[in-house]
Structures are given as C-alpha cells and as structure tokens.
Structure to design on (97 residues):
C-alpha cells in the first residue's frame, strides 16, 4: 500500500531544476503540479538584466520590466515523446485559461 504522504514523482529533469533556480517557490510549485498533467521542459526562469537587455535589443522582448528579472516568470515548451514541439497547432491542445 502506498504511503499517502508520498510525494508525486519528480518529472522535472535536472536541467529543468537548474533553470528553475531563483524562481519564486510558489511558481516552482505550480510548474511541478503542471508537469504532473502535461509533458514540457523548462526553457527559462530567472534572467539577468544583461540577458534581458540582449532580448530587448534583439526584439525578442519589449521590456526591461520583465517578471523573469524577479523570479516571477517561467517559459515552458511542450514535448511529445521527449521532443520539444514549437508548432502552434500542437500548443492548442494545452488547456486554455
Ligand atoms: Zn517568458
């Protein structure tokens, strides 16, 4: 019989964990819960001001007021059979809220 208090399996990889370093614990908990429902990888969590400035310069971001700078944002990418999928039609299978 399983112990009722056993933690759910950690489906996040070591790389995902590294990328979650510095992210607010509440948001990490949300990512952990989501990973129990959907397959994805963590692309990025915390950003330095230098990285954010690079992203703004390249046009990938429009703000220096990003929540990535404070640990209140994460970027995730869905996977199918372990492969990252960027195609938009697949993304629509994710629940929308
Ligand atoms: Zn982001």
């Amino acid at each position: 019989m399983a112990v009722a208090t056993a933690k759910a399996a950690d489906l996040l990889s070591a790389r995902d964990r590294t990328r979650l370093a510095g992210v607010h614990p509440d948001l990490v908990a949300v990512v952990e819960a989501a990973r129990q429902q959907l397959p994805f990888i963590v692309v990025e969590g915390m950003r330095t001001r230098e990285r954010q400035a690079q992203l703004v310069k390249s046009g990938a971001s429009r703000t220096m007021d990003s929540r990535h700078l404070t640990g209140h944002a994460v970027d995730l990418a869905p996977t199918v059979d372990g492969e990252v999928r960027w195609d938009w039609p697949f993304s629509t299978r994710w629940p929308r809220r």
Observations:
- The chain has four helices and three strands.
- The mean pLDDT is 87.
- Strands lie at 40-44, 75-80, 83-84.
- The pocket of zinc ion is lined by residues 68, 73, 75 (CB under 6 Å).
